[in-house]
Amino acid sequence: MANIQQAVPFFMVTSMEASLRFYVDGLGFVVINTWTPNGAIEWCWFKAGDAAMMLQEYRPGMAKDNLGAGVSICFMCEDAIAIYHEITARGVTAKRPFVGNGLWVVSVTEPDGS
After folding, report:
1. What pLDDT is attached to residue 32?
2. Alpha helices in the chain (DSSP H)
3. For strand 51-57 and strand 10-13, is the pairing parallel, antiparallel, or unpaired?
4. Where are the domains of the chain?
5. What is the Cα 67 distance to its own chain's centre?
C-alpha cells in the first residue's frame, strides 16, 4: 500500500457551473485537471492545500435520487474562524462557527445540498 498517496472524494453534481462557483470562487479551491468532451467541463479535480476533490456532472438519464443524503466532508485546517471570514466575504453562506468534538466547525452547504 506504499503507492497510495491520497484519498480523493468523488461526487456527482447536477450543475458543474454552480459547483465550480461554490468550490473555486467561494471556497478558494484551485482546478488542477478537467475533462471537457463537449466544450464544457463535465469532470474536474480541484484542491486546496493537501485537500482534493473530484466532481462529475450528471448526464441525461442518470439517476439523481437522494442528492447529498448522508454525505459530509471535513477539511481540517489551522484556523477555521479565518476561513469563515474569508468565504463569507466571497459570498458563501456559512453557519456561525461552533466547537464540536473539541474542534472549531464552520459548516457550509454546497449547491446539491451536501
Report:
1. 95
2. 16-20, 80-89
3. parallel
4. 10-60+74-105
5. 14
CATH class of 10-60+74-105: alpha beta
Dihedral pair phi/psi, residue 88, rounded to 5°: -70, -30
- Sign of the Cα torsion 74, 11, 46, 18 reads negative
Strand partners, 13: 57
Per-residue pLDDT at 1 exceeds 70: no
Nearest to 31 by CA among 46, 52, 17: 46
40 band by pLDDT with thresholds 50, 70 and 90: very high
Question: Quick one: pLDDT at residue 24?
Answer: 96
Q: How far is CA 62 from the centre of its chain?
A: 21
Q: Which residues pair with 39 in a beta bridge?
A: none
- The answer on pLDDT for 85 being more than 90 is yes
Overall pTM > 0.70:
yes
How, if at all, do strands 43-48 and 30-35 pair?
antiparallel
